[in-house]
Design a protein that fits this description.
Layout lengths: L20 E3 L5 E3 L1 E2 L10 H10 L12 H20 L6 E6 L2 H9 L6 E4 L13 E4 L5 H14 L4 E5 L11 H10 L3 E5 L11 H4 L3 E5 L10 E6 H6 L10 E5 L2 E4 L13 H19 L2 H17 L4 E3 L12 E6 L4 H12 L1 E2 L1 E3 L4 H6 L6 E5 L6 H17 L5 E4 L2 E4 L19 H4 L7
Parallel strand pairs: 3-15, 5-6, 5-7, 7-8, 8-9
Antiparallel strand pairs: 1-2, 4-10, 9-10, 11-12, 13-14, 14-17, 16-17, 18-19
Helix pairs in contact: 1-8, 2-8, 9-12, 10-12
The structure holds pyridoxal-5'-phosphate.
Pyridoxal-5'-phosphate binds next to helix 3.
Length: about 450
């Protein structure tokens, strides 16, 4: 482990791309400062090593008699146990491997026997899949928001309360135990969208009373295409399979299909064994990093970032609540006089800093907060360092006080430096830039 305690100038753990050199518009280059962990996190060194170890055995899962196939099947099923232990799943729960959080939530949405209550702050992935959804507008405090959810559940029964563990826009963490009690006391179950929480806080679903949890490997330092839905088996067993196909069945004749129970029922097709093993390895590594103090390291960095940015004249930070008990390392901000796309392009082109700009697939929240035009999000994780944080603060201060040194222009919703002399590496030589679909299309609560 490469943990360096009490020294927030160093990163906490080794991740892929830590020494990546990126070109700047002035013809120089610098080490990339990645502040886009909330979108996709780099691979932990432990994950990269485990995948390299498994690759020579790469073969079919659940089907072959060959030695390599047996090894892959064992690795796949061992990963299920690792993930189950990591989240504290109870015996009546099952781990289903999916592609990502979006996939997990869509799967569960097909199994819910009734209405789903959600907040208007949710990522589109935890808003759009629920067919019979009832949206509660969050209040200015968490206490009042809980009261509004209670009124909604009292007024009309719901089968499920689907709620994020941590906002992907502000990083604010919700009180999961209280929400689980609230849902249960009104006869509903609770699903936690753990996409932003699981990479940064330990969550024991058995202890907290959470019925379902969804998260993504690519945000958990395992960018190999797997995700998780873990939770109570009964709804999942009672529903039609999410995907019909090989692996999801007990027997098939021309006119009759007998579906398998979960997890196979919802895992049709060839499983992503590399992705699943990467995800489980990340869970093991995260548990070790957390016992070595990674959570307080990240807290220190995100406090430093929040304090530094809010001390700059003309910079404002977005929050939903006045009383959030905890916040993960996500800071969303605006700079007076500059649009989010221009700020992000400036940070990349002149400082080698990667952030996300736009509406973060949370259009209803951004509109309600008065930021329908979007904002800039800086998010950090295990590979972030205090010097990265200082670089970002200094770069934003320079923009707010002196403005950019280069020219930036918008083209189809995507801001670029003009001219942009930065070459792509050979592996994408000749590729054109692409815009962000979440930044350019609109979602309202009613649509
Ligand atoms: N939920 C939240 C809170 C997120 O932040 C995201 C992605 O940013 C998702 C769900 C969807 O995750 P994925 O794109 O991995 O399916």
């Amino acid at each position: 482990m490469t943990a360096v305690l009490n020294n927030s100038c160093a990163s906490f753990a080794a991740v892929s791309g830590a020494d990546l050199q990126v070109p700047l518009v002035d013809g120089t280059s610098c080490t990339y400062a990645n502040f886009d962990y909330a979108a996709s996190a780099p691979a932990l060194a432990e994950v990269t090593a485990r995948i390299a170890e498994l690759l020579p055995y790469y073969s079919s899962v659940h089907r072959g008699a060959g030695y390599a196939s047996r090894v892959c099947t064992a690795a796949y099923e061992k990963a299920r146990v690792t993930v189950s232990d990591f989240v504290g799943a109870q015996p009546d729960s099952v781990v289903v491997f999916t592609r990502n959080t979006t996939d997990s939530l869509n799967l569960l949405a097909g199994c819910v026997p009734g209405d789903t209550v959600v907040l208007d702050i949710e990522h589109h992935a935890n808003l759009l899949p629920w067919r019979d959804r009832r949206v509660v507008v969050a209040a200015d405090s968490i206490a009042e928001t809980l009261a509004r959810i209670e009124v909604e559940l009292e007024t009309k029964p719901a089968a499920l309360l689907a709620i994020t563990g941590a906002s992907n826009v502000t990083g604010e963490v919700l009180p999961i135990r209280e929400l689980a009690q609230l849902a249960h006391s009104h006869g509903a179950r609770i699903l936690v969208d753990g996409a932003q929480l699981v990479p940064h806080r330990r969550i024991d679903i058995g202890d907290l009373g959470v019925d379902y949890l969804a998260f993504s490997g690519h945000k958990l330092y395992a960018p190999h295409g797997a995700g998780v839905l873990v939770g109570k088996q009964d709804w999942l067993d009672a529903a039609e399979p999410y995907l019909a196909g090989g692996g999801a069945v007990r027997s098939v004749s021309i006119d009759r299909t007998e579906w398998a129970p979960v997890p196979a029922r919802h895992e049709a097709g060839t499983p992503n064994v590399l992705g699943v093993v990467a995800l489980a390895t990340a869970c093991e590594a995260l548990a070790l990093h957390e016992s070595a103090g990674s959570i307080s390291h990240e807290r220190e960095l995100s406090d430093r970032l929040r304090d530094g940015l809010s001390s700059i004249d003309g910079v404002s930070l977005l929050t939903v609540w006045s009383d959030a008990p905890d916040t993960v390392g996500i800071v969303t901000f605006k700079v007076d006089g500059y649009g989010p796309g221009e700020i992000a392009a400036y940070l990349s082109a002149e400082h080698g800093i990667g952030v996300r700009d736009g509406k973060f697939c949370a259009h209803p929240l951004l509109s309600r907060l008065g930021h329908a035009g979007g904002a800039v999000r800086a998010s950090l994780g295990l590979g972030s360092s205090g010097s990265d944080v200082d670089r970002l603060i200094d770069a934003v201060r320079t923009l707010a006080t002196d403005g950019p040194s280069w020219t930036y222009e918008e083209d189809g919703g995507w801001w670029n430096p003009v001219p942009d002399p930065r070459p792509f590496p050979d592996l994408v030589d000749g590729a054109a830039g692409v815009g962000s679909p979440c930044a350019t299309q609109t979602v309202s609560i009613a649509s």
